[in-house]
Amino acid sequence: MLLLTAVGAALVLTAVGRTWAEGVALGMGGSRVAVSASGSRLTALPTGMALVAMAAAVAVFAVRGRTRVLVGVLTVLAGAGAVAGAVIGYTDTAGLHAVAAGQLALSSGRAEEITRTAWPWVALAGGVLLVAAGALTAWFGSGWPAMGSRYEAPTRKAPARADSPSDLWKALDRGEDPTG
């Protein structure tokens, strides 16, 4: 689960930093300006979902039982969000049009001859791995071993009942406070 989450999140985070779409914007006097947009420029959804999945992978070690199943469901949802973000980024051209407007210093611009790269597919694959990691956690996670009890908050023990002075000394030797 941890390996799937790490690889899936790494794929998504790497992909969103790369160019997803390229095109040409027509400027004043017929000039042609090349424009490109990264995945994070087109949609922020995959980045956020990958970070949620990474946090869930850490949380899996701190919880157990039904809570671990809920963390698995959260990871499935984060993976589905990364997949949806990759699809949105691949199909949407509004982000590239906004980049064209910015490079032309106009309030609106239009990119033409738009081409797509393979990076949205890499982000989609990372999202699928996150879904698989979450499904594994939701299905099998409740049976996985949990952290030892030494990591839990200490509980207060009832004071030892002392019938004689030697019982008081024995309680002190065990690390108990006989005065309660």
How does this structure look, described?
The chain has 7 helices and 3 strands, in the order αββααααβαα. With about 180 residues, the protein is mostly helical. Strands 2-1-3 form a 3-stranded antiparallel beta sheet. A hairpin with a 5-residue loop joins strand 1 (about 20-25) and strand 2 (about 30-40).
Give a brief rundown of this model.
The chain is mainly alpha-helical and 180 residues long. The chain has helices at 2-16, 39-42, 45-62, 66-91, 94-104, 119-140, 165-173; strands spanning 19-26, 32-38, 111-116.
Strand element count = 3
Rg, nearest Å: 27 Å
Distance between the termini: 46 Å
**Principal-axes shape call:** elongated
Average pLDDT for all residues? 85
How much helical structure, as a percent, in the residues?
Answer: 55-70%
* Strand percent estimate: 5-15%
Strand order, sheet with most strands? 2-1-3
Structural class by secondary-structure content: mainly alpha
Biggest beta-sheet profile: 3 strands, antiparallel
- Helix and strand element order: HEEHHHHEHH
User: Which stretches are low in confidence, meaning pLDDT under 50 for 5 or more residues running?
Assistant: none
What is the number of helical segments per DSSP (H or I, 4+ residues)?
Answer: 7
Quaternary organisation of the protein chains = single chain
